[in-house]
Structure formats: structure tokens, C-alpha cells
Design brief:
Shape: extended
Number of helices: 8
Number of domains: 3
Strand order of the largest sheet: 7-6-3-4-5-9-8
Number of strands: 23
Structural class: alpha+beta
Largest sheet: 7 strands, antiparallel
Mean pLDDT: 83
CATH topology of the largest domain: Thrombin, subunit H
CATH architecture of the largest domain: Beta Barrel
Distance between the termini: 94 Å
CATH class of the largest domain: Mainly Beta
Strand content: 25-35%
Length: 385
């Protein structure tokens, strides 16, 4: 028995030594159990629930029927050569070479958001279009009409009249987090409906010079020309954004992994106003502003950088009537802190015209509260500050 025990002990020692050598020199030989394993992504919507996801096909199948391709056309005048104004030339040829028009076409995407046929898309997709055709994922095509546009957020609402329309489910864009998996659906370069995957790269992107009101979701899901107005959806297939722009230095504006989408919470608010009244009404006080910097704060003898500097006041505007002056530093709107000029613009725009608001300003290092009656923001052209 003792002899058998010694043989067993020696065999076990040799096996352990061989295992140590193999694990050190050839660890790949010890991965029998992991070959061919499926990598899973864990996504949790609560602190206790966890779901393993190996495919996003169900989200794509849910959202794709509601994403449409949009084709627009408009008549563009072709400039004529100055030679055609020559009297001798016109004597022999008359006006047959006068300025002519030709069709200019554009393509984009949109999202059906109700069974009544309302479609969300970008304002720049349908801007100045004479004809708008919508192609559904099921092959149907129809003409669309513009219900209204809001160039300052680059949102437009179209209407089509077809039966049995699919519609997308609104998600909670305010609940999105950096790192969430998202899908972008649209018609890039006119190749047909395409789904790309990425993550939420950043939230609250502003100061990009794209729109007047900016609060973009940034994503690395591939967005290319033709995707504008398409859907950005979560892993459940719910709409969280309207794809609107990309950052690109590549020829033709191809994706470099930096795309921007309008949060659906903002797009929905604009849509509801457009459907109800045909236009969007925003608050306005008639001032020019500048972001505060550390240097500016020091020049005003402020202890910390906060608020936004009022650089000009429109004569006769709401701010002028309320007694606001250039050089004032606006720090709060109805108790909400002002962090920068973009935030201030959003806070004022959200106030109903005619309503009285309370602004807190710093003037000569002294805080003061000023009552002001909010005016109506004048209409501005697309991407105008």
C-alpha cells in the first residue's frame, strides 16, 4: 500500500509540473472549453435585472418598418452667361437662351411616429423642396406634404396619407447614458435602408455651430449623407434621436465616427407644437451674450466662473424695458442656474411669451433680481444665431 501511495504521489507531482510548464509556455493549449464561445453583451435596465444579448436583430426588426426614405426635388435656375445680354446676339437668337431651370434632387430619411402618417425628419432634408416623395420599407411610395419646419432645431414634420402605417415607439432620450449601445437606421448614399451599430459617445453636445438650439447625442454609429432625418434607436428598438449631422473631413462627407442626433425629447416637443399650430413659438428677451471665462470673471472681480455675460441689449426689447444693461452677468432664470450661453438660450426659449419671469443678474459685484415679461422670438433662417 505504501508503494502504491508513493507511485501516486510521484505521478501527481509530475503531472502538476507538466501543467505548470504548459501553462507558462503554451497557455493556448489549455483553452479547450472556451473555443467557439459566443461573446455576450450584458445590458441592464435596472439594478437587479440583467439580460444577455447576442444579436440586435429584434431591435432592428421593430424599428426598420417605421424608417422611410425621402426623395426631394426642386427647380433651380441655371445662371446664364453675360454674353447672352449682347444686343447683336439677341437680335439673331432672341430669348431662346434665357435663364432656364433644372431639377435638383436630394435624399434623406425620416421616421413615422404615428399611425396618422406624421413623419419626423430634418428641416434641411426638405428645405425649399417642390416635390417630396416618401418610400416605405414595405415598398410603398407616396407624396408627402410639409406640416411645418423649425430651422433652429433642424426638425421638420411631414404628413402622408396611407393606410396601415407602422409607427415607431418613443424612447427616453433623457435616460440615455454614455456607453449605451445604439443603432442608426437610414438610407446612406441612397443604397437603401441600412442599420449601423455604435454607442452613445457623449451627451449634451453644443457650441458646434450646426443649429441655433443644440443639445446633441453624439454617437459613433456610422452616419453618412442620406442618413439625415433617420432614426437613432436603443437596443429595444425605441426611438431616442433623429440623426442630423456628422463631423467629417473625408471626401463626400463620409463618416469618421462622430455623428450627432437630436434627442427625441426635444424633437417631440417641436413636433407637437408644429402639429398643433403649424409653427414653433419660443421665448425671447432681446440680448446678445458671451460665455464667461476665467479671465472675464477675474476682470469683473468674481470669485468663480458662472453665468453668461450680456454684451448687448436690443433697444425697445423685453430686456431693455426691464432695465437689463450690457455688462450684467445673468446667473439664473426662474431659479434655474445659467451655465453658459447655450443653456441660457434654452432656458429663455422654453418660457411662454407673455409670461413674467425672474432673472438674477450680477451688476457691480452685487446680485439683483429683475422681473421681465418674455417676448416672442423672431423667426430666423436655418442655422442662423
Amino acid at each position: 500500500m505504501r508503494k502504491l501511495w508513493l507511485v501516486f504521489a510521484q505521478t501527481a507531482t509530475i503531472c502538476l509540473a507538466a501543467l505548470f510548464v504548459i501553462s507558462t509556455l503554451r497557455p493556448d493549449l489549455l483553452t479547450w472549453g472556451t473555443r467557439g464561445a459566443i461573446v455576450t453583451i450584458k445590458e441592464s435596465h435596472s439594478d437587479t435585472a440583467s439580460t444577455q444579448i447576442t444579436s440586435f436583430s429584434s431591435a432592428a426588426r421593430k424599428a426598420m418598418p417605421a424608417v422611410v426614405n425621402i426623395f426631394t426635388a426642386k427647380d433651380v435656375k441655371v445662371p446664364r452667361h453675360p454674353f447672352m445680354d449682347d444686343p447683336v446676339f439677341r437680335y439673331f437668337f432672341g430669348n431662346q437662351f434665357d435663364a432656364q431651370t433644372q431639377k435638383s434632387t436630394n435624399l434623406g430619411s425620416g421616421v413615422i411616429v404615428s399611425e396618422q402618417g406624421y413623419i419626423l425628419t430634418n428641416s434641411h432634408v426638405v428645405e425649399a423642396a417642390d416635390e417630396i416623395e416618401v418610400a416605405l420599407a414595405d415598398g410603398r411610395r407616396t407624396q408627402a406634404r410639409v406640416v411645418g419646419t423649425d430651422p433652429e432645431t433642424d426638425v421638420a414634420v411631414l404628413k402622408i396619407d396611407l393606410a396601415k402605417l407602422p409607427s415607431i415607439t418613443f424612447g427616453l432620450s433623457d435616460k440615455a447614458s454614455v456607453g449605451d449601445v445604439v443603432l442608426a437606421i437610414g438610407n446612406p448614399f441612397g443604397v437603401g435602408q441600412t442599420v449601423t451599430m455604435g454607442i452613445v459617445s457623449a451627451l449634451g453636445r453644443s457650441h458646434l455651430g450646426i443649429n441655433t438650439f443644440e443639445n446633441f447625442i453624439q454617437t459613433d454609429a456610422a452616419i453618412n449623407p442620406g442618413n439625415s432625418g433617420g432614426a437613432l434607436v436603443d437596443i429595444d428598438g425605441n426611438l431616442i434621436g433623429i440623426n442630423t449631422a456628422i463631423y467629417s473631413q473625408a471626401p463626400g462627407g463620409a463618416s469618421l465616427g462622430i455623428g450627432f442626433a437630436i434627442p427625441v425629447s426635444a424633437a417631440r416637443q417641436v413636433m407637437e407644437q408644429i402639429v398643433k399650430t403649424g409653427a414653433v413659438t419660443r421665448g425671447w428677451i432681446g440680448v446678445g451674450v458671451q460665455d464667461m471665462t476665467r479671465e472675464l470673471a477675474e476682470s469683473f472681480n468674481l470669485k468663480k466662473v458662472r453665468g453668461t455675460l450680456i454684451t448687448e441689449v436690443l433697444r425697445g426689447g423685453p430686456a431693455d424695458k426691464a432695465g437689463i444693461k450690457p455688462g450684467d452677468i445673468l446667473t439664473e432664470v426662474n431659479g434655474a442656474p445659467v451655465n453658459d450661453s447655450a443653456g441660457m438660450l434654452g432656458l429663455i426659449a422654453a418660457l411662454p411669451p407673455g409670461q413674467q419671469a425672474t432673472l438674477k443678474v450680477v451688476r457691480s459685484q452685487t446680485e439683483a433680481e429683475i422681473k421681465i415679461t418674455i417676448g416672442t422670438r423672431p423667426k430666423q433662417s436655418r442655422r442662423e444665431e
